[in-house]
Amino acid sequence: MAYTMTLLRSIPTEDGTISLYSEEYGQAMHTQSGAYTEALVKHVRPSGILSLNENTLRVLDVGFGIGYNVLALLEEFTRDDRGRSLEITTLEKDFPPVDIMEAISFPGKTGALYDTIKRLCENREARGEKFTVRMLAGDARRSLPTLEASHFHAIFLDPYSPAKNPELWTVDFFRELYRVAAESCVLTTYSSALQIRTALLEAGFTVGKGPSMGRKREGTLAAKGACVEPLDETERAALRSDPKATPYRDETLSGARGEILRHRKTDMAARRKTQP
Ligand SMILES: C[S@@+](CC[C@H](N)C(=O)[O-])C[C@H]1O[C@@H](n2cnc3c(N)ncnc32)[C@H](O)[C@@H]1O
Predict the structure, then answer these.
(1) Whose CA is nearest to atom 11 of ligand 1?
(2) Which of 130, 126, 48, 47 lies closest to 83, judged by CA?
(3) CA 105 to CA 108: how far, in whole Å?
(4) CA-CA distance, 89 to 135, in Å (whole number)?
(5) Which residue from 8, 21, 82, 205 has the fewest beta carbons nearer than 10 Å?
(6) What's the pLDDT score for residue 1?
(7) Are the C-beta atoms of residues 160 and 31 closer than 8 Å to each other?
(8) What percent of the chain has pLDDT over 70?
(9) Residues with a CB atom less than 6 Å from ligand 1
(10) Closest ligand 1 atom number to CA of residue 69
(11) Residue 41 is part of which domain span?
(12) Mean pLDDT on 3-21
């Protein structure tokens, strides 16, 4: 099995929902301001997915974690499906922490949906009357190239931070995300780091600002096409001139974390030398 186990422990967040702290990455899966709220405010709502005029909505979720992005999307979708269906594909490297998820509960209908998501961990697939969720296990850098081109109407990009989890923030990984994005697909992420915005631009996306939440800075929205408000000229000039905007690269989509970080440091140093 491609899965590995990682050391995770529960931590409370300010909206009353639980997040997990990862010893491997040295950080929590969600913002301290509210784990479930983050899924709604940073991903589901800004993606605009539920306003699309499509019979079948298709969403790619990168980094299943404990499934809050999937849950928030299902919760909003099932409230008023307008006769449409929803297909979610979620990518996850580690075996989901089923024991911890079993101890997490939500009230009412949200709780019933979360129980459905828990079954996803064992079966890799969960279904409702109008939705399906499938999980592709293993490194997203390997599963993403197997997915159909121009397929998804929204992408939730939710790995750990760029410095801790650089393999899912590279120009090369974003090129693959661009390939599987349908025209007008919106990608959501909590990061506003300069190197992430540069990488998204280089991969072909239109890049704009995403919402902020609590103490966290604004996120980023990226689109295949012109359906997000692009960054203004001053912001784009900063991406061209600031060495910190040097993106991560991983041409083989298989580089080790340390290798990707070192490669960027070298590129940054070269860029500093060539600047006036
Ligand atoms: C911040 S958490 C995601 C939180 C999640 N979206 C939620 O709603 O609970 C990041 C997740 O990305 C996964 N991840 C990190 N690197 C990965 C990789 N190379 N391929 C697939 N998943 C990866 C981690 O195992 C972790 O579960």
Answers:
(1) 63
(2) 130
(3) 10
(4) 6
(5) 82
(6) 35
(7) no
(8) 97
(9) 29, 39, 63-69, 91-94, 139-141, 158-160, 165, 167-168
(10) 8
(11) 34-274
(12) 86
| Torsion sign over Cα 189, 195, 200, 206 | positive
- Averaged pLDDT for residues 131-138: 97
Q: What are the Cα distances from residue 156, in Å, to 64, 72, 106, 186?
A: 10, 12, 22, 9
Spatial strand order of the sheet with 152-157 comes to 125-127, 131-137, 85-92, 56-62, 152-157, 181-189, 220-223, 206-209
Q: CATH no. for residue 107?
A: 3.40.50.150
- pLDDT, tens digit, 9 for 90 and up, residues 70-81: 999 999 999 999
Is residue 215 pLDDT above 80, yes or no?
no
Two tokens at 265? Answer: 């440091």
Mean pLDDT, the chain, whole residue set = 94
**Residue 6: predicted pLDDT:** 64
Q: Which atom of ligand 1 is nearest to the CA of 167?
A: 19
Give a yes or no: residue 84 inside a domain: yes
Q: Are 40 and 72 in contact (CB under 8 A)?
A: yes
Tell how far the Cα of 200 is from the centroid of ligand 1, in angstroms: 19
The pLDDT tens digits for 69-121 are 999 999 999 999 999 999 999 999 998 889 899 999 999 999 999 999 998 88
Q: What is the pTM of this model?
A: 0.96
Q: How far does residue 1's CA lie from ligand 1's centre (Å)?
A: 17
| Interatomic CA distance for residues 213 and 32, integer angstroms | 10
Residue 22, in any domain of the structure:
no
Q: How many domains does the chain have?
A: 1
Question: Which is the closest atom of ligand 1 to the Cα of 6?
Answer: 25
